[in-house]
Amino acid sequence: MRSADSPGRRDIPPGCPFEQELPYVGEGAEANADMWATADETREEIVALYRRAIAHADTTIAALALDEVGRVPWWGDAEVTLHHVVVHVIAETQRHAGHADIVRELIDGTAGLLHRNDNLPPADESWWRDYRQRVEQAAIDASGRSN
Question: What does residue 26 show for φ and ψ, rounded to 5 degrees?
């Protein structure tokens, strides 16, 4: 989180936000690129990034009060509390752990976060078909590579 640019605010904690540039975040990032690993990414790289993110989150949570206000750049301009971010991450984890969201989609066709706010990129059926094919091809390509 980055604190708001107003008097008395600062970046919190020192070294925040996450220092590693992520190709799927920021200007020009492809929609949904953070939802899958490319064939070029190794298991070790993915796990190492996950562990660095965990360490960063642990440091942030230890350093800040839950009511500390900041911004998550890819969430827009609204200020959010650390509490909001923590609850959001817990909800995302429970939703995606075991891919319960995929099972739900297979049962009733519902995709995304909520019925009125699916939290998915605005795209038509053709875009989603092409996207799924690219993800599947990345998985096929990665399965042929030895780790």
Answer: 105, -175
